[in-house]
Amino acid sequence: MKTICFYFQVHQPFRLRRYRFFDIGKSHNYFDEFSNRSIMRKVAEKCYLPTNNLMLGLINEFGNRFKISYSISGTALDQFELYAPDVLESFKRLAETGCVEFLAETYSHSLSALKCPEEFEMQVHAHSAKIEQLFGQKPTTFRNTELIYSDEIGAMVADLGYKAMLTEGAKHIMGWKSSNYLYTNAINPKLRLLLKNFQLSDDIAFRFSNRGWEEWPLSTEKYVDWLNSIDSKDEIINLFMDYETFGEHQWAETGIFEFLKALPKRVFSNSNFEFLTPAEAAKKHQPIAPLHVPYPISWADEERDLTAWLGNELQDDAFNNLYSLIDKVKTINDPNIQRDWRYLQTSDHFYYMCTKWFSDGDVHKYFNPYDSPYDAFITYMNAFSDFKLRVDAHESIASKSETLIPEEVDVMIEEYEKKIKELKLLREKAKPEKSVKQKLTSKVEEKPKAKPKAKPKSTKPAPTKASSKAKGKSKV
């Protein structure tokens, strides 16, 4: 029988609050508690809870004939624990069925594989331990952030003991070859590769509700006919997509839940396909060849490269500055520093700085909560500047810990107070000079009313246009 491998990415970043220049040195709270909580609850109600319930129903109906898999980022798991414990419990119920595989990835959905193998390894171990703690599974299949892959990254993953890895069946890599087979890493053939069939995956993830699409509306009958029409020698169809496809990117009103609910029955009754998890598929099928990927690929945008996150001066500057601290951070035994270090690595922060406004401009605008990439860069670098001050302070204290005397502590405090006064003075100078009338008025003016909190921007997506992978699910 041929194989369908259903895989879903579940990710939510810790979004930054509008961290200003004058917050540097004064506030270490970088993340938007209100926005992160409200978005998580919204997506939980629209996507996670109803889709998990639907998946559980399908497993109860078809038993172990229906198999699915997830990779859930550490930042999403942390937010489940903070804001949506009911979602976490629903994933645990799915894990108990034995029909769901949970994959490993970097804990903070980071780009560490591109910069620091040691940090990459630490995050992978941390994420795997979290999965085992929550769901009772030790992952054997790996999925890097945004399916980013190269020969060297694959070799690192193999060295960590993983048997299989997911990536994109990018056209410029595949050429005439089909993604509907199993491949191996070009450096270490022990690592087996499952490649996304982007055409059939994106028909669901991006084109399902597009009324301008010539195949709209998409029915299960039509979709299974497409599955049956693949080359008779092809062995596996890998359907990889964001979990937020169901209910969030494709609203319930589009019929996406009815489509998903009816699909397995149609597959079983009208095709020669079975559902397997990635680990099962990697064991069942034999690789046909090594896949040579000398430069990193991803599942984002038409180019399937890294330019959604890295490539312009803003992104590169922020990325390089962040990882310049890695040697200092790893010596600091402070849970707050380590938490912020991980959350600042999340790839979404660099995605928001993207200046690509051509082939995938619409989806980049939709998934960007900032008014411009420059606003995203300024906010991030302000937060980073404060984080760097904290890291440097830890290093300074550690280096002086053996000889530090009370007089030196007083000097350090005076220096910090002096810096704060300088920042306050700069802020006052930056304000426009008041007129005489304004000055007189301000003396008798009562305490000003507090400004109402700004409401988070709507996360309702525009009508789907893009036919390619977009990042940032529910990032408003």
Query: SSE order in H/E notation?
Result: EHEHHEHEHEHEEHHEHEHEHHHHHHHH
What gap, in angstroms, lies between the N and C termini?
42 Å
Give the oligomeric state of the chains in this entry, treating copies of one chain as homo and distinct chains as hetero. single chain
Count of folded domains:
1
The poorly predicted ranges are: 358-364, 401-405, 434-451, 455-476
Shape: globular
User: What would you report as the Rg, rounded to the nearest angstrom?
Assistant: 25 Å
Strand fraction equals 5-15%
Q: How helix-rich are the residues, as a percent range?
A: 40-55%
Instruction: Using the 3D structure, state the CATH architecture.
Output: Alpha-Beta Barrel
> Which CATH class applies here?
Alpha Beta
Question: Could you tell me the mean pLDDT?
Answer: 88
